[in-house]
Design a protein that fits this description.
- This protein starts with a strand and ends with a strand.
- With 283 residues, the chain is of the alpha/beta class.
- It has 2 domains: 124 residues, Oxidized Rhodanese, domain 1; 127 residues, Oxidized Rhodanese, domain 1.
- Strands 1-5-4-2-3 form a 5-stranded parallel sheet. A 4-stranded parallel sheet has the order 7-6-10-11, covered by helices on one side. A two-stranded antiparallel sheet has the order 8-9.
- The protein contains 11 helices and 13 strands.
- Helices cover 31% and strands 15% of the residues.
- A hairpin with a 6-residue loop joins strand 12 and strand 13.
């Protein structure tokens, strides 16, 4: 199943009366609280989803900035969103589908079969003539049952060992990968052996590139057929976006949720800088 849905196809799906749950995952690094923007205008019927408190939990620095939420907490959130068994879930945002990808990654991993991301997000909906509504949507509580994520995630130790068995992608900006800039975490650099593939290469004017272009980008980073692929970023959000890009192209991508924010806060972890993957010290 294509994990993306176009604005036109979403409009058609809603017109059929099919059970669709719309999730507004407005989140940006410079504006982590997306609720004010949601209240000012969102897709009709969409429920606001908070990145920091619902798609993650507040943990110790050694867990990273966006640790995965306990499944019971995520299930409680999903029921607050009104999610019921058998519904189609469509997540969207207004920041290159980053927040929506995190919702897709979590809900798919926890057992929801049909989760899609609105390709192009809020802008695509508006460009297609879609209407917005204001205020908060409070649906009746849902009854969905979620389970623990058991596949598609890597621990810090598994991330450390990944380059020996496959390709570990660092999907942050090149200057952060090289260790020239680190605006958020205590140490600059990357995990030894990781290859840089910025998430932005998969986008074309705010939408995902076609499957062939995404496969070419993965292949250029060494992620070819039969090679196990994992991805990390700063805090586990953008890595989920790369997993979504992989799904568009038919490539399985394991996510290291702790990402650089966990690695750089864990004493004893080697750090590489530059374009090579030689360790230069310990975090």
């Amino acid at each position: 199943m294509n994990p993306l849905i176009s604005a036109a196809d979403l409009s058609d799906l809603l017109a059929t009366g099919a059970p669709v749950r719309l999730l507004d995952v407005r989140y940006r690094l410079d504006e982590p609280d997306g609720r004010p923007a949601y209240l000012a205008g969102h897709l009709p019927g969409a429920v606001y989803v908070d990145m920091d408190t619902e798609l993650a939990h507040i943990g110790a620095p050694a867990q990273g900035r966006h640790p995965l939420p306990p499944v019971d907490d995520l299930q409680a959130s999903a029921r607050r969103w009104g999610l019921n068994p058998g519904e189609v879930v469509v997540a969207y945002d207004d920041w290159n589908m980053m927040g929506a990808a995190r919702a897709w990654f979590l809900l798919r991993g926890c057992g929801i079969d049909d989760v899609r991301v609105l390709d192009g997000g809020l802008r695509a909906w508006r460009d297609a003539g879609g209407k917005l509504e204001t205020g908060e949507v409070r649906p009746a509580p849902g009854t969905v049952v979620l389970h623990e994520i058991t596949q598609g995630v890597a621990s810090i130790d598994e991330a450390a060992a990944w380059p020996a068995r496959g390709v570990l992608l660092d999907v942050r900006a090149p200057e952060r990968y090289r260790g020239e800039s680190e605006p958020l975490d205590p140490v600059a650099g990357h995990i030894p052996g990781a290859v840089n593939l910025p998430s932005t290469v998969h986008l074309r004017d705010g939408r995902f590139a076609d499957a062939a272009a995404i496969r070419d980008a993965f292949a250029a980073a060494g992620a070819t057929d039969a090679v196990p692929v994992a991805a990390y970023c700063g805090s586990g959000v953008t890595a989920a976006h790369t997993a979504l890009a992989g799904a568009v192209a038919g490539i399985d991508v394991t996510v290291y949720p702790g990402s650089w924010s966990q690695w750089s806060n864990t004493p004893g972890r080697d750090v590489a800088t530059g374009t090579e993957s030689a360790a230069t010290g310990s975090a």
